Amino acid sequence: MLLDMLPMLSPDLCALDQKKLKELLRVATRSILAGINDGRRTSGYSVTASEILRHVGASFVTLRQRDALRGCVGSLERGRPLVDDVAWNAFAAAFQDPRFPALSRSELKITSVEVSILSTPQLLEFSDEKDLLAQLRPGIDGLIISYDGQRATYLPNVWEALPNPQVFVHQLRHKAEINPNIPITTIEFRRYTTQHSPHIVLV
Question: Within a 10 A sphere around the Cβ of 106, how many other Cβ atoms?
């Protein structure tokens, strides 16, 4: 399907109820189980009948084992139907995250999955680091950093580990491999919020 033929994003996609979030969680779970059983991802369309979830959206899928990260892959831009974006990212988090080996069948019982839906990122305008830090909302904002083709993001839940805004930004710069000598006013920052599904164990 051509991108310009995809349905436009509905405003309601930024305020999904728990029923819709659980549908997306089923999409993620089935995509991972299909990867275990068949070695390939499935389309989210085969799991959900909710029309709103077929609108273009952006998601992250996070896997954890006993609170330790086991995989996390996502999309920062909206480029495909949300159900397919979740299915794609779930498969990638389980089998293609370069930080971890592919998920094995024996790990399913100890692996939980969570789906995060991203709002449209908003560009932050600031005069210096102090001004930037004052605009951030710990625990609420996800942050995207971009400079000269280098880019990285922290989801809002990273604030739990990095509650200090200055440390949060400095670690994100390090993640994006942006030279610490680069003036912060030449770097682009965009923030977004997320909605989260519940955590569930895969089996």
Answer: 7
